[in-house]
């Protein structure tokens, strides 16, 4: 009997443990944030929490250039925790699908006295035109919303993107978009860390961020030659929502980075090493009271400017002339540029374009490391600190797309975050096209007999 | 109570017969209807096996039930110990062997049509090279009006996870793998073939219905195996040619002259 009881307890424990829900995903602090003193870390995390929320409860910071997905309506009745109102979507996407995703969206009530975001949507009854809400932080619904109030429900697109991201992307790119998900460690080529706001393959000018369309194409087509698979079969609407969430994650990471830069000089653990901790805390308290809000405002302004610029038409790299026909002469001119002093492509890509140029054997500076300190392994680095190989142009694999315009853009605007520099100012349009033609002919170049045997 | 076991054993062949009839007619038997002529023949082979198995199962159970029924009231006779009976051993070795031999000979025709090059359909059209890699299907079409070549050509067209083929036309793909073993599986067309690194395997099939069919990887190829989904899209010949021309226009895009076809799915972003 005793052993039976023990067995029963054991089974009950196993069942109880098995039934516990998974831990909700959480954003992680960057290494740089972790290098700050405790009070500064807390402040960075508090700012991020206020501006971006957590994965399970997103915040819609409307100052950011993100399409959170917005509905608006006017309250016709307040009944307990249910508001009667007709929701009108502000962008013409499928209403029913979106209405089903409202759970957790912020409900902003514009009646003057009430602070924004104190209500969250639970569900919307499309037929009855009623929105169930819960008061955030214990606020009573009837105190916040009155009949006649204008209501904006924000965030369903971002939530949709979040759900898709957590299903398709998170295992490589990580909850925070740090490129360090559980499957990332298996890869020789690391998944993108979004937090610098830099994406490699874009159609925009050298200093400009990736546009919506660039990210859309990358998600749809994948990146051949890497582990980034194609999501061709997802609906356009799904990919767009994912892209919105990825941009938002990038902005969150950039915001974190910008705040750390502001605090790093005075409040890193290294800087505070020789001072009394009480003194540092006091200094930080002064900084927090007097300067932090301004820094946050400045940072969000920069984010807005940078990310809005990425979609501006004049920031798109558009060739000034149409493609030069890929004749033997054009290819020959391209070859001369490739091997000449003007292009110097050979120094990285090698004389035969195999990606084994002399500079891949050099000892280079470590990005972000102490200036002048060389790496102890040879190779070229990207800004994320990974060794990158110049593309083997004979392989016929083009990561950023194989259209002529893609190759043109790689040459003209470079590959962001990598040693592949922009040649748009040093080379003329025709020269870039000659070079494009040469590069595109490389996989089909006849090998000399002595090499063909390999 | 004495008759419990005879009833018990007679109950199951009855259930089986009912299920054997219900399963195919309710669509529980196959993933879907076969949308290819060869697929219909493959399904017929499965039906044949279903019939053989049903007859055998029902027959042996009726025999078992009959013996039990008769034995319940028969207290006089002793059981007959058959172990070591040479003729019985011969009989139940030869009978299943004969059935297996029949099945293996009967299916040879289908196998030959599917696998033997000289028996391929005459008007086979080399539609594309499909290269499996972790975790996607990379597709290379020849330029419109050209033949599929074993090596990449400058005017080839590329896409991923979305294989378009003309409907009612036997098509051939060259199946390759870039890394590990994968398996090209289109359940609705009854096509399944491993992609083996280092070899090119020709696979032919014919879709007899327009529409999209799931393409999955049927070989556990790594942690992202579940991601490796694609689509085989069968469409009328004119539509197929239009698709290739759209791809061609999209892939020749030089940033200045817009692709002429507006329907280009992936050109939308420009």
Name the features.
heterodimer, A: 454 residues, alpha+beta, Thrombin, subunit H, Cytochrome Bc1 Complex, Chain D, domain 2, 40% helix, B: 270 residues, Immunoglobulin-like, five-stranded mixed beta sheet, 22% strand
Write the layout of secondary structure elements.
The complex is a heterodimer of chains A (454) and B (270).
Chain A: H1 2-19, H2 31-34, H3 38-52, E1 53-54, E2 57-58, E3 70-79, E4 82-85, E5 88-89, H4 95-99, E6 106-110, E7 119-125, E8 130-135, H5 141-144, E9 150-154, H6 156-168, H7 170-173, H8 212-221, H9 236-267, H10 277-309, H11 328-339, H12 346-349, E10 380-381, E11 387-388, H13 404-413, H14 429-441, H15 449-452
Antiparallel strand pairs in A: 1-2, 3-4, 3-5, 3-9, 4-8, 6-7, 6-9, 7-8, 10-11
Chain B: H1 4-25, H2 37-72, H3 86-106, H4 108-115, E1 125-133, E2 136-141, E3 157-160, E4 162-166, E5 171-177, E6 182-186, E7 191-195, E8 201-205, E9 211-217, E10 229-235, H5 237-251
Parallel strand pairs in B: 1-5, 4-10
Antiparallel strand pairs in B: 1-2, 2-3, 5-8, 6-7, 6-9, 9-10
Helix pairs in contact in B: 1-2
Q: If you had to describe this structure to a student in words, what would you say it looks like?
A:
The complex is a heterodimer of chains A (454) and B (270). Chain A contains 15 helices and 11 strands. Chain A has 454 residues and is an alpha+beta fold. In chain A, the strands form 3 sheets. A 6-stranded antiparallel β-barrel of chain A has the order 3-4-8-7-6-9. A two-stranded antiparallel ribbon of chain A has the order 1-2. Chain A has a two-stranded antiparallel sheet with strand order 10-11. Chain A is globular. The longest helix of chain B has 36 residues. Chain B is α+β, with helices and mostly antiparallel strands and 270 residues long. The termini of chain B are far apart. The C terminus of chain B is likely disordered. In chain B, the strands form 2 sheets. In chain B, strands 3-2-1-5-8 form a 5-stranded mixed sheet. In chain B, strands 4-10-9-6-7 form a 5-stranded mixed sheet. Chains A and B meet through helix 8 and helix 13 of A and strand 3 and strand 10 of B.
């Amino acid at each position: 009997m005793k052993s039976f009881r023990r067995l029963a307890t054991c089974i009950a424990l196993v069942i109880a443990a098995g039934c516990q829900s998974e831990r909700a995903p959480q954003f992680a602090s960057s290494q740089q944030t972790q290098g700050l003193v405790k009070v500064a870390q807390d402040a960075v995390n508090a700012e991020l929490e206020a501006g971006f929320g957590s994965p399970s409860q997103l915040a819609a910071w409307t100052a950011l250039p993100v399409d959170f997905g917005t509905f608006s309506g006017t309250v016709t009745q307040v009944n307990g925790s249910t508001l009667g109102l007709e929701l009108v979507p502000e962008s013409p996407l499928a209403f029913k699908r979106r209405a089903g995703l409202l759970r957790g969206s912020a409900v902003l009530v514009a009646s003057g006295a009430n602070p924004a975001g104190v209500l969250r949507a639970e569900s919307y009854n499309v037929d009855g035109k009623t929105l169930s809400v819960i008061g955030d932080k214990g606020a009573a619904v009837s105190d916040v919303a009155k009949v006649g109030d204008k209501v904006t429900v924000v965030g369903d697109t971002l939530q949709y993107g979040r759900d898709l991201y957590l299903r398709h992307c998170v295992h490589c790119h990580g909850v925070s978009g740090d490129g360090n998900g559980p499957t990332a460690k298996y890869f020789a080529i690391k998944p993108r860390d979004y937090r610098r706001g830099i994406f490699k393959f874009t159609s925009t000018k050298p200093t400009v961020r990736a546009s919506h369309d660039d990210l859309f194409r990358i998600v749809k087509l994948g990146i051949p030659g890497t582990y980034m698979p194609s999501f061709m079969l997802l609906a356009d609407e799904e990919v767009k929502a994912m892209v919105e969430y990825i941009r938002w994650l990038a902005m969150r990471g950039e915001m974190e980075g910008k705040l750390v830069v502001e605090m790093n000089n005075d409040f890193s653990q290294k800087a505070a090493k020789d001072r009394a901790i009480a003194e540092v805390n006091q200094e930080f308290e002064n900084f927090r009271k007097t300067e932090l809000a301004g820094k946050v405002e400045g940072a969000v302004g920069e984010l807005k400017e940078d990310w809005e610029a990425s979609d501006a038409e004049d920031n798109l790299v558009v060739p000034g002339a149409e493609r030069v026909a890929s004749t033997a002469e054009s290819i020959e001119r391209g070859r001369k540029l490739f091997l000449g002093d003007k292009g110097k492509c050979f120094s990285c890509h090698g004389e035969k374009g195999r990606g084994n140029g002399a500079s891949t054997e050099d000892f280079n500076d470590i990005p972000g490391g102490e200036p002048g300190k060389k790496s102890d392994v040879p190779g070229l680095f990207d800004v994320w600190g990974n060794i990158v190989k110049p593309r083997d142009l004979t392989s016929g694999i083009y990561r950023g797309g194989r259209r002529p315009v893609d190759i043109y853009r790689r040459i003209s605007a470079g590959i962001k975050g990598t040693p592949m520099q922009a040649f748009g100012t040093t080379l003329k349009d025709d020269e870039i096209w000659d070079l494009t033609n040469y590069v595109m002919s490389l996989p089909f170049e006849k090998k000399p007999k002595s090499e063909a045997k390999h | 109570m004495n008759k419990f076991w005879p009833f018990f054993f007679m109950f199951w062949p009855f259930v089986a017969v009912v299920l054997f009839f219900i399963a195919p007619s309710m669509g529980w038997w196959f993933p879907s209807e076969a949308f290819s002529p060869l697929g219909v023949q493959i399904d017929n082979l499965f039906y044949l096996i279903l019939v053989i198995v049903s007859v055998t199962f029902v027959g042996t159970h009726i025999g078992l039930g009959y013996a039990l029924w008769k034995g319940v009231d028969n207290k006089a006779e002793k059981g007959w110990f058959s172990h070591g009976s040479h003729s019985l051993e011969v009989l139940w070795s030869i009978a299943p062997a004969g059935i297996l031999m029949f099945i293996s000979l009967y299916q040879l025709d289908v196998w030959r049509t599917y696998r033997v090059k000289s028996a391929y359909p005459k008007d086979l059209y080399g539609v594309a090279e499909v290269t499996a890699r972790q975790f996607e299907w990379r597709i290379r079409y020849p330029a419109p009006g050209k033949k599929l070549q074993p090596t990449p050509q400058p005017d080839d067209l590329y896409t991923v996870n979305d294989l378009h083929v003309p409907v009612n036309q036997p098509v051939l793909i060259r199946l390759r793998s870039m890394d590990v073993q994968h398996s090209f599986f289109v359940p609705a067309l009854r096509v399944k073939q491993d992609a083996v690194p280092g070899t090119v395997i020709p696979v032919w099939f014919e879709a007899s219905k327009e529409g999209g069919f799931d393409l999955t990887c049927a070989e556990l190829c790594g942690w992202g195996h579940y991601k490796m989904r694609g689509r085989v899209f069968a469409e009328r010949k004119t539509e197929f040619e239009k698709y290739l021309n759209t791809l061609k226009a999209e892939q020749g895009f030089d940033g200045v002259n817009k692709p002429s076809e507006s329907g280009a799915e992936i050109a939308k972003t420009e």
